[in-house]
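Practice set, problem 2.
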Amino acid sequence: MKWGYKHKTGIIGADAEYYASRLFMMIKNPNGSRRPDLISPEISFDYPISIELKSGKGKKGVMVDYQLHYALNTSEDYFELFNKLPPKVVKEDLFGKKESSFFDSESRIPYYYDVLDRPDKIMSEDLSLPFSSIKLSWGDHHIVPNYFAFYNFAIRKHLRTGGDLKLIIQELEEMIKLDAQGDCHDYKLRKEDAQSWQNLEGGDVLAVYHDLDFKKMDISSQKKKVLNSDSD
């Protein structure tokens, strides 16, 4: 196995998941490659929840667009977003063919993003030896519902590209629909697009939590423009 930069950052992400799973009494999702990182076992929670964990220094996590569809679990979720029921597909198993949906879960599962701060000064080159993850330190959690993260993604893409915010939201919703139905498979190609990656800042979460007055804050004129257009 090549012990390179990506492998070392993978160690950081895995350690963050193990830490958070034990703290919240959750388990790592066995299907984590296409679903949120952490899910709640029935024994720990009265109602199920799921968490997508984003860890990093400076209270910053990184979102990717092909994970946005994780929020869709039921037909009700789909209808709420697209104002129509999800399409039916024919599946065949040992008992024959039957119609079903990609969203057959019986109950809605609340979906959250958790930006886990890493206050240590560990660099990737400090993780070369086995069990190096013991050096890592974990700080505050900044937890928000999925719709906060979704609109954060759209606004940050707007700020970086200058594109129309409403159009960006519509394009992201259409992308979510295709991804949730399994109709899009170009994930590797999408990773190469810089706009597929947007920051999720713990500082923004704290601003909402403490109900800060944005008018008194020193923010750029571009951010002010977004806030004003969003309130129209």
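Problem 2, part (b): a different protein.
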Amino acid sequence: MTEIVIIIGLILMIIGFICLFNDKSELAFFLGVIGSYFLSGGVMMSQESNKPTAMDVYQSKTTLEITYKDGIPVDSVVIYKDKEK
């Protein structure tokens, strides 16, 4: 889904730039703006999909990695477990 949104955004922006160089119409500006919205939305969606969800934790797909300094826990990170090879 994310890839499709990014591709649509790129296509709309390219068409907008082509229209801009040919006739400088309002359509070119509109396509450029809509294309940039699609592109930025796709990038944001792709970054959000890398985060573990509550369902991933419930299904034991994640583990908690704790960093200790002088025997005191100072940081913790939820990471995905390695897949079986």
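Answer key, part (b): Residues 2-48 form one domain. The beta strands are 62-69, 72-80.
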